[in-house]
Amino acid sequence: MINYWIEGLKIAIQPSNLLLMFIGTVGGVIVGALPGVTSSMGIILLLPFTYYLDPKSALLMLAGMYSGSMFGGSISAVLLGVPGTPSAAATLIDGYPLGRQGRAGKAIFTALLASFSGGILSGIVLVFLAPQLAAFALKFSPIDYFALAIFGLSIIASVSGRFLLKGIISGLLGVFISTVGIENIRGSTRFTFGIPALSAGFELLPVLIGIFAITEILIELEQKEKEAKIQHKISEIFLKKEEAKSILIPILVGAIIGILIGVIPGTGGTIATFLAYNQLRNWSKNKEKFGKGALEGVAVVESVNNAVTGGALVPTLALGVPGDVVTAVMLGAMILIGVRPGPLLFQATPDLVYSFFAGWFIIQFMMLITGFLATITSPYILEIPKKILMPIVLVFGIIGSFAIRNSLYDVAVAMIFGLIGYFMRKHNFPATPLILGVILGPMAEQNLNRALILSGNDYTVIFRSPISLTLIILSVLSIVFGVISAEKERK
Amino acid sequence: MKLKITWDTGIGLGIILFAIFILINALGMPNSSLGLGPGDFPEIISVGLIICGIILLIQGIREKPRKIYSKEALISIFILIASGLLYVYLVKYIGFLYLTPFLMLLTMYLFGYRKIHYAILISIIFTLMVYYIFYGIFKVPLPSFSLF
Questions:
Q1: Which listed site, A191, A272, A318, A354, has its alpha carbon 20 to 30 Å from A242?
Q2: A249 in contact with B at a CB cutoff of 8 Å?
Q3: Nearest Cα to A302, choosing from A30, A116, A25?
Q4: Domain presence at residue B131
């Protein structure tokens, strides 16, 4: 165990890896701060740069992007009144009024401290829990994996919010997309309709680039008149003693809620931050301050956001089932750089896992430093107009989809999925279920096939394995939970 | 009551038709005596889609029709996607280095950027940068101009 840590730390502190993590973190903070560029998009656009790296280094760089972008969203929430990332939407409630009171610097600094604490605390849980979970999951039989894939798909219910039906449709379409091309069971081709290019199926990356990057460009193109203006100036940054004291409890509360939400797949999403915010307001002595510029409000939300990241990586790394929207993209990214998350990852490549763990903590400290620098320079970062940013994103998208296997066909796929994603967005079909379907579809099909061969076509095997039965029950609960909260949201 | 066609009704119908199409295709695939046949899984998906499509169609009937698209936005979106696809077609002949600045210029124009000198400068410098990183450092065989 200790050996693993020493090995991992050695890899993580190699100068080249430190540099890559740093670039990733800086890029993440900037990407997070820019409205219109989300964490998912940042991870996807960074991918083409990581193909040529060793998987360990690539993973560390992506982790930097992931953590950094989670904090970055708060900068634009405070300064522009526009959340830079969807998860920073709740940061707006108190962050923006704080800016209006001339306390923008303090608000962002609070967000930074909270993000840092959330990242560190959830990282501790990650390194203790993920290996345990992975060890347990080694006992899984094919039918248990099938049930796990179904459980993973059931988080569609929570990520779809009030558009549950459309989320399910989107997920089913995703599973269908994964069946196009040569299938893994008999090696025959499916749904290619005589088009040779389709026999290779759809690569995951062009689909991701299409739906997360190209679609975003099209949405921005539609709203091109609206360019957000910087509303507030940064003056004081550091907190007074009593201010620092006041955010301590909110950070802890946020971290605990964030970790729980992250670890249990299907409870995440933007709703979680609002939930934690409301909870803390109810407990607080000075309720009336909330919503009018309470540092506590910013602290709890940002702590939740970054605690979710570490928490959500537990099921992602140990089981290969993402906990929320961004980890779904992270999971796709890992597969693309040649890291196959799941219980075997911990057995086969402990050096990779532990270098990631060690890197995770280093990244949090890097985020603290770059976040501070970004706070000072943010007015300049936010000056980059979308008119220039979006064409750049487009070129990155083209390069990224081309470079995965040097094929122009993939660039065309990205363009087409960009358009599909645009229409989906306009009609409120959430995109994440589609991605979940593409990732988890093959896992479900192949393991169901294996399980049926082992049991001689006996479908009741699903209910005879205690693990798969538990997972199926959890999936049902997750869907019921989703339906109930969808009903609540509609009212 | 007059029957109005809303977006969701139409989409629901489209999904049902698409799913039936998948189903017919999947039913034509060979069966397997043990384990899943290649068509079994797509059959389950298509049945699921048909059920969801029907529900969406019914929900759509109860909805009020609403306007979702603006004409100008749609035009610029189609121009962007069409030029992206045209780019994919042309880049084989013209090469990444020469074609990309034009795509960037067009995109900036669509976004309403009108400082033409800056736009030209940005698109050339950025293309060179990306070309250097991916072709020079990462050795990605980007399409390049060739007479033959």
A1: A272
A2: no
A3: A116
A4: yes
Query: Is B104 part of a structural domain of the chain?
Result: yes
A198 contact B CB<8A: no
Question: Which of B27, B47, B77 to mutate against chain A (most A CBs within 10 Å)?
Answer: B77
Q: Do A165 and B104 touch (CB under 8 A)?
A: no
Which of B15, B33, B62 lies at the terminal end of a domain, its last residue?
Answer: B62
Number of domains in chain B: 2
Q: Say if CB B91 and CB A406 are below 8 A apart.
A: no
Distance (Å, whole) CA A435 – CA A473? 23
Structural domain boundaries, residue B129: 71-137
pLDDT digits (tens, 9 = 90+) for A319-336: 988 877 788 889 989 988
Residue B105, in any domain of the structure: yes
Report the residue count for chain B. 148
**DSSP letters of A134-201?**
HHHHTT--HHHHHHHHHHHHHTHHHHTTT-HHHHHHHHHHHHHHHHSEE-TTT--EES-TT-GGGGG-
Flag whether B2 is in a domain.
Answer: no
Render pLDDT for A47-99 as a digit per residue (tens, 0 to 9).
888 888 899 999 999 999 999 998 998 888 888 888 777 778 888 888 888 88
Q: B46 and B90: one domain?
A: no
Residue A135 has pLDDT above 80, yes or no: yes
**Which of 373-392 (A) contact B at CB < 8 A?**
385-388, 390-392
Same domain, B14 and B51: yes
Residues B19 and B51 in one domain: yes
Cβ A353 vs Cβ A316: under 8 Å: no
A445 interfaces chain B, CB cutoff of 8 Å:
yes
Q: Which two tokens stand for residue A78?
A: 């405070």
Contact A457 B34 (CB under 8 A): yes
Same-domain status, B93 and B131: yes
Distance CA A316, CA A324 (A): 9
| Alpha-carbon distances, residue A78 vs A227, A239, A244, A269 (angstroms) | 16, 16, 19, 21
Q: What is the least distance, in Å, from the CA of A11 to any CA of chain B? A: 22
Do B14 and B33 share a domain, yes or no? yes
CB atoms within 10 A of CB B41: 25
